[in-house]
Amino acid sequence: RKGDVEKGLRESDVVIERTYRTQFITGLPLEIEIAYSFFDGDGRINCISSMQNLYDVYNKVIKILGVPNDKLRVVQAATGGGFGPKSDETPIDVAAYACLATYYTGRPALAAFTRSEAMTVQCKRHSFEITNVVGAMKDGRLNAWKSKLIEDTGAYISKGHLVIGRATFHCTGPYEVPNVWADGYCVLTNNTMAGSTRGFGAPQAHFAAEMIMNELAEELNISPLEIREKNMLKPGSLTSTSQKIEDDGLVRCFQRAVETSQFTRIRLEFDEFNRRNKVLKKGIGIALLYHGNTLGPEGDDFATVVSRIERDGTVVVQTGLTEYGTGALTSLAIVTAEVLGIPLSMVRLERPDTSAVPNAGPTVASRTTVIGGQAAVDAAIKLRAAVASVAAKILNTEPLNLEFKNGEITTPNGRSLSWREAVNKCYEQNVSLKAVGYYIAPPTKWDPETGQGAPYNQYTYGALVAEVTVDIETGVVKVDRLTAAYDVGRAINPMGLVAVYEGGSIMGLGYALTEEIIHDGGYLVNPNLHQFIIPTASDAPEEIQSIIVEVRGSIGVFGAKAMGEIPVVLPAASIAGALAHATGVYFRELPLKPSKVLEGLVKATHL
């Protein structure tokens, strides 16, 4: 609740109301849930499993087995994708099945879902129905925004109450609106369970927000760029929760995306193309986002990292945070190497293991680099201090005078000692070279009654431009080019970021165009890859332009912002906007399958 929305709507020059619908999908990690268990020589059950949340599996399986804590060890196996489902209930299920079999038989056990079973029981991305009523002045300034979000969470609530919270916080998109009223409803139904899926409510909320901005721009006879430029969050702006924005990350992303894509020129060229072609039509669309980083109001945002230095100078980093293809743990190695001044090749990551590391919180909400990186730096600083205490005596200086760089430890007057030599001296003097790093983000402050306050410590911003071609006789939509600009805060691993941009964009393309979980009377009728259509390499755009914008964040390691989930949020909105430009028809329901596009075009011609 912000301002007086009813008064704001009355005073607006233009008011429009639209309803948008999104579908169920599954995150579909290509590797199914699987767990292997066995007794070791100490009478302890060892469970090696594919998962996202190490201690979530450990804590719940311990309760299921009813054994003391030291009688279970859980290790994350190399994991082939997560995307949310492997942070929810199914990894716990397979681990429990395997461990129970081992517990009662004394023998090794393997438990795994089939593809059909996995798609049936995995949590889905929630289906949403979002009704937006938006009022604006003649010049395009937003004046009031009223949203009603209805989320289908299936037969079990899972994370539904948290997903609807994030969606409601973001329902106005990255725009400043003086009067806001938003209600979110998490509804239990007889459909299969929905829960954690990459984006966590943001793709649904931004689809509805960006589409109504396009429709409002048309109503006001202004361009989609102009309406966004006038209303986007800038330094000093207040979000829908009245949180003050401190940086210009969104402005920079918008400018870079528009300039790089040559949006205005391409739009005019497409208009001319469409006048000359009757069957193929081209369109260009843009969508913007802001995304609250890490857990925010969803839980305590902490992480732990255990690091140690081997005698040969290798640094071993281990944490309860997991790796499942994102490359996020590589960032922990990078920041460790940076603090210690050693090559990245001298840092080794070890697999998450409950017998070796404490709880580091869940590996969700794009928080591994942001929060886990801070814990890794804390551990590395402690190790550097230990090495510095010995090196300083050898170099006859104070520890604070030492510089750690390129595998050398040097003093201001040029005296130096190699990293390996210093580590050897530490071992000779029995100096402990093991450290536990810890970080917890500042608590967020907001009013659960009004939703006002600061639910997140920092935000990632982004802009995505999509160019499409649609065959109006078949309804087939082809995405030709995407131009993505995201404010990453600080690019810890630039190559990894580009991979995240590209992979997330293609995943978002599937959500926009083809993917849909279909229920009939509560039963899932398409739990297979024949009927649940995911994009392949042939569906990828010819070009994805990845633009890294860096505006330092307030809590992330070295100023980094969350990125893991971000690229999946905007493709549906930008593609739907481009389709509207190409055809003159606004499609308000996902996915944009050929049959649905044809149906919309036919309806429009008969209006």
CATH C-level of the largest domain: Alpha Beta
Side by side, the strands of the main sheet go 1-8-9-10
Number of strands: 25
> In angstroms, what is the radius of gyration?
26 Å
Shape label: globular
**Beta-strand residue fraction:** 15-25%
What is the H level of CATH, i.e. the homologous superfamily of the largest domain?
Aldehyde oxidase/xanthine dehydrogenase, molybdopterin binding domain
The CATH architecture of the largest domain can be given as 2-Layer Sandwich
Helix share of residues?
Answer: 25-40%
**How does the helix and strand content classify structurally?**
alpha+beta
Return residue spans where pLDDT drops below 50 for at least 5 consecutive residues.
none
**Total domains:** 3
Straight-line distance between termini: 37 Å
How many alpha or pi helices? 15
Mean pLDDT: 98
User: CATH topology of the largest domain, which one?
Assistant: Aldehyde Oxidoreductase, domain 4
